[in-house]
Amino acid sequence: MHVSFQDAIRELKTAPPAAIYLLYDLTDGWFLDRLLSSITDALARLDRPYALSRVSAAHDRLHELELALGEGSLFGDLALVCASEFDDVGTAFKGKTPDQLIAILEGQLKRTEADAPLLVLVTTQEKPDERKKWVKSLTASVRARVIRAGGLTRQETELFAQELLMNFPALTAAQKRWLIARTGERVGQLARELQKIETFLSGQTSISQSDLDALVPDYRASDVFEVVRLSVSGKGREAYAAYQRLGEDKSTFGLLALLTRQYRYVLRIIEAERDRVSDADLCAILGLRSFMLKSLKDQARTLTGEACSARLRELSDIEYQIKTGQLKEQTAIELYFARRLCLA
């Protein structure tokens, strides 16, 4: 069943974990780390030894997923399996889902024994495709939790931020408020900056504002969404400059996922305008708010459907080259921006 990220975390503080967690629209790894730590905390509270394994749900590696789900009990530990690349669930996935994968999920939902494994499925796909029967079964099951990564309200962001900041008595209340704003009110980025601050403090009981200014870049000035907006709008030079300002927050796969999503949106806008689809229907199809259409339509005016399709193929090729070891992450993304600069 669908639950908010905050509700999923809150539930794990008092209840045992669900059989399956589906974390979709993931572009910041903090959300996965936070969910996994909450699950393992719940297992520790229940005095349940566990064995965590990370595998892929890609079609050519389903045997690894099956093996991982059965491994934990061999050693008396409960198997906690985190499976990435669960892209079959998304609306953008057009291929046929293997029967083997459907059988794995159906079997997981039916298991009720005390030592049944736990499964965390992860995808960058923006939303589940509930037109598929097996996806509908997954989202309807009380034994599953379907969660959108991110999409936090301002209040939820504030609560998670305050939770992270509780362990930093060296920071004043004013400095904590400054940090939340400085990191663009993004919880994942705040968590990463706090790790840097913890290392810097090394036992000190306070930190000056000038030291904080030097340690923490201003993520309000440039974030990954700005990089995507500039890149898709054809402003290659500005996009690369914004990318360089990201500092250590350069998640290659997160950026590739956001670029892919944006080009898909723009392509759908181009197709919808050609087919004279109304704005209301288009918002319903894409799952967007009406105010988000204007910027997408502005971007659609600078691109053709053929150009969008070409960029999507390029991004897919880059991801494949990284995953197969043909290119390092940094090299691949630099090449992407180099091509944009040549076209600028």
Rg of Cα set: 22 Å
Strand content: 5-15%
Largest sheet, spatial ordering of strands: 2-3-4-1-5
Low-confidence stretches at least 5 residues in length (pLDDT < 50)?
none
GO molecular function: DNA binding; DNA-directed DNA polymerase activity
Keywords: DNA replication, DNA-directed DNA polymerase, Nucleotidyltransferase, Transferase
Family: Belongs to the DNA polymerase HolA subunit family.
Protein name: DNA-directed DNA polymerase
Give a short overview.
The protein has 344 residues and is α/β, with parallel strands linked by helices. It has helices at 5-12, 29-45, 62-71, 99-110, 133-140, 154-165, 173-182, 187-201, 209-215, 224-232, 236-244, 252-274, 279-286, 293-300, 305-323, 329-343; strands at residues 20-24, 50-56, 78-84, 118-122, 144-148. A five-stranded parallel beta sheet has the order 2-3-4-1-5, sandwiched between helices.
Write up what this structure looks like.
The chain is built from 16 helices and five strands. It is an alpha/beta fold and 344 residues long. It folds into three domains: 5-148, P-loop containing nucleotide triphosphate hydrolases (Rossmann fold), CATH 3.40.50; 154-215; 224-343, Zinc Finger, Delta Prime, domain 3 (Up-down Bundle), CATH 1.20.272.10. A five-stranded parallel beta sheet has the order 2-3-4-1-5, with helices on both faces. Helix 3 links the parallel strand 2 and strand 3. The termini are far apart. One of its GO terms (molecular function) is DNA-directed DNA polymerase activity. This is DNA-directed DNA polymerase. Belongs to the DNA polymerase HolA subunit family.
